[in-house]
């Protein structure tokens, strides 16, 4: 018997649970990138980036290939970009709701304090 789907999903989200991996996926959302360009944009040690890329590659979230002398990375498919887009939409909506609540609290405080 295989691993239950919910456990596979949890492992997938654990794999995404590192800021460097999320940043790499955001960058790869614009298309394939060379490791040297990822290094410039992520600004971490090459060995640390290599480790994080290896985690993403082993999980099948990204693929790598050579283009001349450059090692290139790309998302393994459009579904990864969709997950990243869904996360952005979710967080944007959450922050918007918090902002609305904060505005309501400020308006209530202003009325309560007014003479």
Task: List the keywords.
single chain, 5 helices, 115 residues, 3 strands, alpha+beta, 69% helix, three-stranded antiparallel β-sheet
How is the topology of this model organized?
Blueprint: H1 5-16, H2 19-28, E1 33-34, H3 35-42, H4 46-58, E2 62-67, E3 70-75, H5 78-113
Antiparallel strand pairs: 1-3, 2-3
**SSE run:** HHEHHEEH
Strand content: 5-15%
Structural class: alpha+beta
Main beta-sheet annotation: 3 strands, antiparallel
- Number of helices in the DSSP assignment: 5
Query: Care to count the β-strands?
Result: 3
Q: What Rg, in angstroms, do the CA atoms define?
A: 20 Å
**Shape category:** elongated
Give the N-to-C terminal Cα separation.
Answer: 70 Å
> Strand order across the biggest sheet?
1-3-2
- Helix fraction by DSSP (H/I, runs of at least 4): 55-70%
What is the average per-residue confidence, as pLDDT, rounded to a whole number? 92
Are there runs of 5+ residues with pLDDT below 50, and where?
none
Structure in words:
Strands 1-3-2 form a three-stranded antiparallel sheet. The model has no long low-confidence stretch (mean pLDDT 92). The protein has 115 residues and is of the alpha+beta class. The chain has helices spanning 5-16, 19-28, 35-42, 46-58, 78-113; strands at residues 33-34, 62-67, 70-75. It contains five helices and three strands, in the order H-H-E-H-H-E-E-H. The longest helix is centred in the C-terminal third of the chain and has 36 residues, at 78-113.
């Amino acid at each position: 018997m295989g691993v239950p789907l919910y456990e596979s999903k949890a492992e997938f989200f654990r794999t995404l649970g590192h800021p460097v991996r999320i940043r790499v996926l955001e960058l790869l959302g614009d298309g394939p990138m060379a490791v040297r360009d990822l290094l410039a944009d992520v600004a971490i040690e090459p060995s640390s980036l290599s480790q994080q890329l290896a985690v993403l590659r082993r999980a099948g979230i990204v693929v790598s290939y050579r283009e001349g002398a450059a090692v290139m990375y790309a998302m393994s498919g459009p579904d990864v970009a969709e997950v990243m887009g869904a996360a952005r939409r979710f967080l944007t909506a959450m922050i918007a709701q918090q902002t609305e609540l904060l505005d309501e609290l400020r308006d209530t405080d202003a009325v309560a304090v007014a003479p």
